[in-house]
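One thing: could you explain this record?
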Amino acid sequence: MSYVWFNILNWFFNVGVVTNQRIVDIDFSSVIYKEVTETRLDKVEDITSKSGGYFESFFDYGDVFVQTAGKEAFIEFLNVPRPSDAVRIISELIGR
């Protein structure tokens, strides 16, 4: 039962937020550990969408990777529904 509970928490609390100024990725890997990564939109260098396999293509979900400038962190959103729409929205926000 605890395995199911931790997987639900892991799914529910891993959040990616895109605003008109920042991109924020919040990942909980356990109950007591979380990782928050954020970057300003002017630091975004590259946005990549990846989906492969039968189920990802059929259900239209995949991963979105945001590469930032310099030594800053690499932001990843995993198992995103309609990843091409997410890439399009971020591209519009950064003015590409």
User: Anything to note?
Assistant: DSSP finds three helices and six strands in the chain.
